[in-house]
Design a protein that fits this description.
Number of helices of chain B: 14
Largest sheet of chain A: 7 strands, mixed
CATH topology of the largest domain in chain A: Rossmann fold
Number of strands of chain B: 2
Oligomer: heterodimer
Distance between the termini of chain A: 63 Å
Helix content of chain A: 40-55%
Structural class of chain B: mainly alpha
CATH class of the largest domain in chain A: Alpha Beta
CATH topology of chain B: ABC transporter involved in vitamin B12 uptake, BtuC
Order of helices and strands of chain A: HEHEHEHEEHEHEHEHEHEHHHHEHEEEEE
Number of domains of chain B: 1
Shape of chain B: globular
Structural class of chain A: alpha/beta
Number of helices of chain A: 14
Number of domains of chain A: 2
Chain lengths: 394, 337
C-alpha cells in the first residue's frame, strides 16, 4: 500500500515535471441560457474537443496545458455577457475567447471587453454584416460567414449564368431584408440591374398582386429571398400561374425537399445556393466526435475550428500573448501550407514548431477573408427534372 | 398594334381576371352580410368565420372523397363536397341562432348589442375551426389547374405577354353568376322571398299580414349559410385556405356591403366588384402596360404603382370611410347604418 502511494506520488511529480510549460486558459463564452441554449452545449463540446486534443498532444509551446473556462453570454443580454467576459479576463486570466455566439452580444463583448483588454476573440456563429466593419484592432475573427456573403455568392452564381437583370422579392424580416440589401448592392456593384426589390408578407392566401408588381418591373429571373414553407412558395406559385417568370433564384431559405415537392418540373432550370461544403473535414469531425455529442448540430464544427485557430496561432507566434498571436490567425487559417483537418492538430503544432506553414481547413473548410471572417462555403444547386442537383461548390 | 394587344393582355392577366374572381368572392360574402343586416338588423361579424367553418367542412369531405377515389375531374372534388359543407354550416348557424341570437331577438335588443354578440360568436367559431383543422394553410384544389396556360397562350398568339386563366377563377365567376341569379329569383318571385322582403321593409306590417318571423329568420340563416360556404370554398379553391385569412376577409366584405348600401343585395354585388377592382388597380404596378402604350420618350422610370401591395387592406378601409362620410347609405341606397 505504501509502495503504491509512493509510486502514485512519484508519477504525479514526474507528470508535473514533464508539463513544465505554462497553463493556458481559453474562455468559451456562449449563450448557455437563452434563445439558442439548445445549440450551445454542442458548440462548447466542439471547442473543448479541440482544446483537449491540443492539450493532450503536449506539443503546444513546449508542453503547455490548455483548460477551457465556460461563461454564459445569454445570447441577448449585452450587460450580462459583458460582465461574464470581464470576469473571464480579469479573474480567470484567459488568453483568448472562443465566442460569443449571437451577433448582438458578440459586438458588445468585442467593444467593451476584448478591445480594451486586448484579447483575441473568435466567434463561431455571429453572422451579422455589421461585425465586418466593427472597430476591433485586429482582435476579432469569425469562423461563420457574414450574412452579406451570401449576397456576393448569389451575385456570382447569377452572373456566371449570363443573367444581367433580376427582380427581387424578400420576406419582410431581418433575414429577408438583410439578404436582399446585400445582394442588391453586390449585384449592382458587379454591373447587374435589380429592377425591383419588394417585400412580401408571409402567411397570405394570395400573392397575385405582389407578382403583378414584380412582373411589371420585369427581369430575366426572380430572386426569392423567402421561406419555402411560407410566402416564398406562394410567390413562386403565383408567378408560375401568371406566367410572370420562368426562372427563379433560390437562396438558403428556399432550398429544401419541400420546394421540389411543391413545384416539381415546373421550376426546371431555376438555381440557387445554400451553405454547404464537400470538404472531408465535416466527416472527419463526425468520426472524432463518435457520438459523444451531436456533431451535425449547427455551429459545432465552427466552434471546433475557432478554438483550434486560437491555439494554432499561439503556436505560430510562439507565445500565448494575444498581442503577439493575433497577427498569426489569418496565416494559419489560409494557404499556403499543409492542409490540416480535424484530428490533425498535433501534426499542425509540430509543423509550426519546426517553422513550417499550415493551411487550417478544419471541420468547416475555414478560409478567412476580408476583416477576418469565414468566406463560407456554398453549394450551388440547379433544378433538373424536378430534382435539386448540385451544380458545384463555391 | 402588337403593343396594344400586349397591353390589353397584360391588363387582362394581372387586373381583369384576378379582379373578376376576387370581386365575385367578395360579392357572395357581402350578400350574406347584407341579408343578415336587412332581415335580422345587425352587422354579423361572425360572417368571415362562418365562411371558414363552411370551407373547413367542405375540405374535410373533399379529403374523404379523395381518399375513397371519388372525383369529378377535371372539376375540383370540392364542388361535390360543397352541398355537405352547406348542410353542416346551416346546422351550425341555426344552432347559434337558437342558443344565442334568439334570446336577444326576443328582448328586441339594440343592434349594437347584437353586433357585440356576433363578435362573441365570431371568436367561438374561430376557435372551433382552428381546433378541428388547425391554423395552417390547407390546399384542397384538385382537377385541372388551368383553362389557359400563360406559356401556351404566348405560343398560340405569338405575343410576348401571357394570359392565364385558372379553372378556379372560371368556376368562381360561373358559380357566382348562378348563385346570384338563383337568389334574386327566390327573393323576387317566390312567396317566401316576398315575405322576406316584406319583413325587411317593415317588421310590424309583415307581422300584421301573417308572416311568421321565426320562419323568415330560419330561411335567412339557411341562405346565408349557403352563400358563406360557397364564397369561402371558392376563395379557398382560388387562393388557399387558412383560418386567419378568412377572418381578415371580414374587412373587404364589410367594405363591399357598406359601399353598395347595407341591406341592398344589388348593392352588395356592385360593392364587391368596386372594392376588388379598387384594391387590384391601385396596388398594380402599371409600368409594364404604360411601356407598351406610350411612345418611348414618355415611358415611366418608376413602377407607376400608386400604393405598395402591402396596403391592400388600406384601400378597403379608405373606401369604407369615404362612403360613410359622403354617402352613408351606400351607392344603392341601403338602410342607414
Amino acid at each position: 500500500m505504501k509502495k503504491l502511494l509512493m509510486a502514485t506520488a512519484t508519477t504525479a511529480l514526474m507528470a508535473a515535471g514533464a508539463a513544465q510549460g505554462e497553463e493556458i486558459k481559453i474562455g468559451i463564452i456562449l449563450g448557455f441560457t437563452g434563445p439558442i441554449e439548445s445549440l450551445t452545449p454542442q458548440m462548447a463540446d466542439g471547442a473543448e474537443l479541440a482544446i483537449r486534443e491540443v492539450s493532450d498532444s503536449g506539443k503546444l509551446l513546449g508542453g503547455a496545458t490548455v483548460t477551457p473556462v465556460r461563461a454564459d453570454s445569454t445570447c441577448i443580454d449585452a450587460a450580462a455577457a459583458t460582465a461574464a467576459a470581464e470576469r473571464l479576463i480579469t479573474s480567470d486570466g484567459v488568453k483568448g475567447i472562443m465566442g460569443a455566439d449571437c451577433s448582438g452580444v458578440t459586438g458588445a463583448i468585442l467593444s467593451n471587453v476584448a478591445v480594451p483588454n486586448g484579447i483575441v476573440m473568435i466567434s463561431p456563429s455571429a453572422t451579422s454584416p455589421g461585425l465586418s466593419t466593427a472597430e476591433d484592432n485586429g482582435l476579432f475573427f469569425r469562423t461563420a460567414p457574414s450574412d452579406a456573403r451570401q449576397g456576393e455568392v448569389m451575385t456570382q452564381v447569377i452572373l456566371d449564368r449570363g443573367l444581367k437583370s433580376v427582380a427581387v422579392t424578400y420576406t419582410n424580416n431581418d433575414y429577408g431584408k438583410g439578404l436582399a440589401d446585400s445582394f442588391k448592392s453586390a449585384f449592382e456593384a458587379a454591373g447587374g440591374t435589380v429592377t425591383i426589390s419588394a417585400a412580401h408578407e408571409d402567411g397570405k392566401a394570395d400573392y397575385a398582386a405582389e407578382v403583378g408588381a414584380l412582373a411589371s418591373a420585369g427581369g430575366e429571373a426572380l430572386v426569392v429571398a423567402g421561406y419555402v414553407d411560407q410566402g416564398g412558395s406562394g410567390i413562386v406559385r403565383a408567378a408560375l400561374d401568371a406566367g410572370a417568370f420562368d426562372t427563379f433564384v433560390f437562396p438558403d431559405g428556399m432550398i429544401s425537399d419541400k420546394l421540389t415537392e411543391n413545384f416539381g418540373t415546373e421550376i426546371d432550370g431555376s438555381f440557387g445556393q445554400h451553405p454547404g461544403t464537400d470538404s472531408p473535414g465535416v466527416a472527419r469531425f463526425g468520426e472524432m466526435v463518435a457520438g459523444k455529442f451531436d456533431a451535425t448540430s449547427p455551429f459545432a464544427p465552427e466552434s471546433y475550428d475557432a478554438a483550434a485557430l486560437i491555439l494554432l496561432a499561439m503556436q505560430a507566434a510562439g507565445s500565448s500573448d494575444p498581442a503577439a498571436y493575433k497577427d498569426k490567425v489569418m496565416e494559419v487559417a489560409n494557404a499556403p501550407g499543409e492542409k490540416i483537418y480535424p484530428g490533425e492538430l498535433a501534426k499542425a503544432l509540430e509543423i509550426l514548431a519546426n517553422g513550417g506553414d499550415v493551411d487550417y481547413v478544419g471541420a468547416s473548410a475555414v478560409e478567412l477573408i476580408g476583416p477576418g471572417e469565414s468566406a463560407g462555403n456554398y453549394r450551388e444547386i440547379e433544378i433538373r427534372d424536378g430534382k435539386i442537383t448540385t451544380a458545384r461548390y463555391r | 398594334m402588337t403593343d396594344l394587344l400586349n397591353a390589353i393582355v397584360a391588363i387582362a392577366n394581372y387586373v381583369l381576371i384576378p379582379g373578376l374572381a376576387y370581386g365575385s368572392q367578395l360579392s357572395l360574402g357581402a350578400l350574406g352580410v347584407t341579408l343578415i343586416y336587412g332581415i335580422l338588423r345587425f352587422s354579423n361579424f361572425a360572417h368571415g368565420d362562418t365562411m371558414a367553418f363552411g370551407t373547413m367542412v367542405t375540405i374535410l369531405f373533399t379529403w374523404w372523397f379523395q381518399s375513397i377515389g371519388i372525383s369529378i375531374a377535371p372539376l375540383p372534388t370540392a364542388l361535390l363536397a360543397l352541398p355537405f359543407g352547406i348542410v353542416l354550416t346551416a346546422l351550425l348557424v341555426l344552432g347559434t341562432d337558437r342558443v344565442v341570437y334568439r334570446f336577444y331577438r326576443a328582448r328586441r335588443a339594440a343592434p349594437v348589442i347584437l353586433v357585440i354578440v356576433s363578435m362573441g360568436v365570431m371568436f367561438m367559431m374561430n376557435g372551433l375551426v382552428r381546433f378541428i383543422i388547425g391554423p395552417d394553410d390547407q390546399r384542397f384544389a384538385d382537377g385541372a389547374r388551368f383553362l389557359i396556360k400563360a406559356r401556351e397562350f404566348k405560343q398560340w398568339t405569338g405575343l410576348s405577354e401571357g394570359l392565364a386563366i385558372r379553372t378556379s377563377q372560371a368556376i368562381t365567376v360561373v358559380t357566382a353568376v348562378v348563385v346570384v341569379a338563383l337568389l334574386f329569383w327566390f327573393l323576387m318571385k317566390t312567396r317566401t322571398g316576398k315575405s322576406m322582403r316584406a319583413y325587411s321593409d317593415n317588421e310590424d306590417l309583415a307581422l300584421l299580414s301573417g308572416i311568421s318571423p321565426e320562419r323568415v329568420v330560419m330561411i335567412t340563416w339557411l341562405i346565408v349559410a349557403a352563400l358563406a360556404t360557397v364564397a369561402g370554398v371558392l376563395y379557398g379553391l382560388d387562393k388557399s385556405f387558412k383560418p386567419f385569412t378568412y377572418f381578415q376577409l371580414l374587412l373587404p366584405i364589410f367594405a363591399s356591403a357598406v359601399v353598395g348600401g347595407l341591406g341592398n343585395p344589388i348593392g352588395a354585388i356592385a360593392g364587391g366588384f368596386v372594392v376588388a377592382f379598387s384594391e387590384v388597380t391601385i396596388t398594380y404596378a402599371w409600368k409594364k402596360v404604360l411601356v407598351y402604350l406610350l411612345p418611348e420618350d414618355l415611358e415611366p422610370a418608376g413602377l407607376a404603382q400608386l400604393l405598395s401591395t402591402d396596403y391592400k387592406f388600406a384601400v378597403s378601409f379608405a373606401l369604407l370611410i369615404m362612403v360613410l362620410l359622403f354617402r352613408p347609405t351606400g351607392l344603392f341606397r341601403g338602410k342607414t347604418a
